[in-house]
Amino acid sequence: MLIPLSWLKDFVDIKLPVGELAKKLSSAGLTVEKWSKDGDDFIFDTEVTPNRPDWLSVRGVAREISAITNAKFLIPNVKLKLPIKNDGKIKFKIDYELCPGFTALVINNVTVKPSSELVKERLKKVGLRPINNLVDVTNYVMWETGNPLHVFNLDSIRGGQMMLTSAKGGEQFRSLDGLDYALPAGAIIIKDLGRVIDLCGIKGGENSAVNAATKNVLLVVPIYNSTAVRKASQTLGLRSDASTIFERGADPGNTINTLLKAAEMIGGKPQEIIDLKEKEFEPWEVPASHEKIERVLGITIEPKKVVKILESLELKVSGNYKVIIPTFRNDIHIEEDLIEEVGRIIGYDNFPKTLPTAPTPTAKVAYAKDYDFEYEVKNILKGAGYSEIYTYSLVSEAQLQKLGLTGTKLLNPISKDFEYLRPSILGNLLEAIKLNQANFSDIKLFELGKQYGEKEEYWLSTIVNGEKFYEVKGVVESLLKQLGIDFKIEPDISNSLFHPGRSAVILAKSRTLGYFGEINPSLLTKFGVKGRVTGFTLDYDLLETLANKSRKYQPIPIYPPIIEDLTITISEKILVGEIMEKIKSVNKLIADVRLISTHERSFTFRITYQDKNKNLTDKDVEPIRKKIASLTPRGH
Question: What is the dihedral sign for C-alpha 338, 341, 346, 349?
């Protein structure tokens, strides 16, 4: 919402500097996102919350400034006075559920001409294009008062009748800017004899628009059903300044004053006012107690100050306290609403600082998450070249059938694609591989999220394309080592998602931490994935439980290591992991053992020798090397 400072000054005496005024408005809830200079003027760009349609007007913002700066709020008097007479040349039929109030006025002998320089200048400042005095007045008065208006060419209305009803759906409508729409069912429309002439609250119709030859007009200030306007606006993807106000609720008690203001600016010969409504729009009473105001706000405040604050917002107060709420404040209905008004006008920044009286909570709250640990895990995988993805926790029955798993079915699924809670994240990762395999040769993905078996659990799952069994094994080992977890990897054929001969189970403290290996080829065929795919999946809750979060670091040794590669050929019955453990146990000078390459049953290990107290020589390493070679008769 754009609000010129010069326009605001018509209604309130503003003495504060622009920056300070913007700060006070923002503190009170009407956020000024920015302001800009326009010649000698300033334009405020405000963010209006959905519950405050009264702020969608110059007068509404001026009223707020009056309250927070203790300046008098002035509304210029409208000199034009007209009687109310609910009959005339046009016969109206109103559906009051769609339109609780419909205030109209016929004006004869109008002259279509350019607007005054003041009107054109102000409309440009708020981002509107001046057209002619009739259209400009409706925009100008709407911006000033917060009540949208519409002007019809009276002589173009067929049959002398207007019926306000809801669209059945599919009616054709051409807006005043020449665009054609098929109207959705439930949209509020006005029809004359056999055609739609207005899409109420959103756009006027081309067939009833004013033009240069217009002599007689029908000026209308309606109150429309906010839900119906919003639904039609969203369905059509069509928004206007008027629909923004109607969606939030225009002031039903200000329609006549708005109409008179516009009629006075248009001129011509106005007739009697037509004010149609099923019931009167009356102010309402909301009681409040001083004791509760102080208790909720946590401050001591004089009753006179409470009354002054509420009256500065144009709320009428009597006793302790009976507060009469005007129709432009439809957001105030309970005592707490009044307390909020008192608090925000005082300014929450002005409340004294106090410490909480309750003890600091120490118990872990439900669903608490250690985001530092999560960040560390994700950073490790990112460093290994993986990209994180987020997929839906709901999957289709077709995916479950491919995985050979069962899932919990929702009672009211939104579609066939999202019927079940996923029992495994790997299904969605395989879908991602299939989706991307045509465009990328190297895909490395991971997801941390919930999967649902007997209970809801967090799991960390990864997937890569290609023949990368040992690479993935290295990533698993690196991740667990950096998290300070002691683990063992053993062959496994129990998990049907993985290849029965190229997969393993990850154990930690005799508990199953997860699985890794190549994905079962039959599964790849079902998902339409080409080539080989490898991945791992870890129980994230157990991972977090077992992680050593208070690790001890040792200084980097000052003496250089001796590093050599040793190739050993072993039989299929011996596990590589067992050989590595045996090599490490040969001598305490062996600081590290890594598998760096394989060829058939020959494995090359990179062995690091290091002494913290001295430089090693080849003579020191030679007996250790011989002992390693003796572990298998085919080592060399």
Answer: positive
